[in-house]
UniProtKB/TrEMBL annotation:
Residues 78-98, 236-287, 338-364 are annotated as: Disordered. Residues 78-89, 236-262, 269-287 have a biased composition (Basic and acidic residues). The keyword Transcription regulation does not apply. Residues 124-186 form a coiled coil. The keyword Coiled coil applies. Keywords: Coiled coil. Residues 352-364 have a biased composition (Pro residues). It comes from the Eukaryota. This is Uncharacterized protein.
Length: 364
């Protein structure tokens, strides 16, 4: 009973043990039974037997059936014992020593049952492990045998494939050699035909170049002759045009000179007529032509003399300024030369700061 209670977990063990002890004690109530159980068996059902919850994981269907049968049998025995207790209306209460002895006896009996069940479970588990081990070994053997068979079949298949591949490769190489030989013959024949065709075309090109060179030479000779004739004709034409242009220019020059001469003659005649008319008018107005002419001539001479004096004065002024500038420049050059001799250095007066002197009277 204690073995079954231990295997069924702490809560189930405490409940079952409490019910059993209540049935055993008879006159004790539920609370008294639980308190007595807690007092005299403080560690029962709490995993002190060594199995605990670990044993629950290893139980299978057979163990559950065995436990159910055991519990049913125990219920029958408990019912019979309760019936006996009912018949004994005034049971004799047990002493604490007797109660402890009874509990100890029941615990020993439960321990014996637990050891027996454990041994049976261990034996069944060992038998199952042997069966599983044998099955695994058989499966391993079958698998190894199947693998060896497949290896042999694969090896045989690879050998057959290698032989077939070698035969196929040999046949393919033979056909390839035949195709290459046939293609080589065709290629050689085509190459010979192409060589003959190339030689024929080369000869044709050579003859064609000769003919073209001869035609080009003839054309060049004819072109040179025509160019030479054309050049001669152009030269003659240019000479003729030059002569005609020269004669035309001379004729135009003569015509122009004649025209200018006529115009000048007309102008002179007109000017003389105007002059005579003016002189006559002056003579008529003043009554003294000689005095008037002398006054005009004197006035004209005075005006011309004044202009000459102004021009002469301007020329003298320009010459004087030029001489002063030239003297100043020579002085600066001498000072610079003196500075160079003394080792002080300096810039040449003939540089861009001192441009050369120009004659203002020069036409340029």
């Amino acid at each position: 009973f204690f073995f079954v209670s231990a295997l069924s977990g702490p809560k189930r063990s405490s409940c079952s043990m409490s019910v059993s002890l209540m049935a055993f004690l008879g006159e004790a109530s539920m609370d008294e039974s639980i308190s007595s159980l807690a007092k005299y068996t403080p560690r029962l059902g709490l995993g002190t037997t060594g199995l605990g919850m670990e044993c629950n994981k290893g139980l299978d269907k057979d163990v559950d059936d065995y436990i159910k049968k055991y519990l049913a049998k125990k219920e029958v025995e408990d019912a019979r014992r309760r019936a006996d207790d009912e018949r004994n209306k005034n049971p004799k209460p047990l002493k604490p020593q007797e109660r402890q002895a009874l509990i100890r006896q029941m615990a020993e009996k439960a321990q014996a049952i637990k050891d027996a069940v454990r041994a049976k479970l261990v034996a069944e588990r060992a038998a199952r492990e042997e069966i599983v081990k044998a099955e695994k070994e058989r499966q391993i053997y079958e698998t190894r045998k199947q693998v060896e068979y497949e290896k042999a079949e694969n090896k045989k298949r690879r050998e057959e494939q290698a032989v077939a591949r070698a035969e196929y490769e040999e046949e393919r190489r033979r056909k390839l050699r035949e195709d290459l030989a046939r293609e080589r013959e065709v290629m050689l024949s085509e190459e010979a035909a192409a060589h003959d065709e190339f030689a024929r075309k080369q000869e044709f090109q050579k003859n064609l170049r000769k003919i073209q060179a001869k035609i080009a030479a003839d054309n060049m000779a004819a072109f040179n002759k025509s160019q030479k004739d054309m050049i001669e004709n152009e030269k003659k034409k240019i000479t003729r045009l030059r002569d005609e242009g020269k004669a035309m220019r001379q004729s135009m020059l003569r015509d122009r000179q004649d025209t200018i001469r006529d115009i000048r003659k007309k102008k002179e005649t007109k000017a003389a007529a105007q002059k005579d008319a003016k002189e006559k008018e002056i003579e008529q107005r003043s009554g003294d032509r000689a005095v008037r002419l002398a006054a005009l001539k004197q006035e004209k001479e005075a005006r011309r003399q004044k202009e000459l004096d102004e021009k002469r004065e301007t020329i003298h002024k320009i010459k004087r300024e030029t001489e002063e500038a030239r003297e100043h420049l020579w002085k600066m050059r001498e000072a610079w030369a003196e500075t160079v001799k003394q080792g002080e250095g300096g810039r040449s007066p003939t540089g861009p700061m001192f441009p050369p002197l120009k004659n203002p009277l020069s036409p340029r």
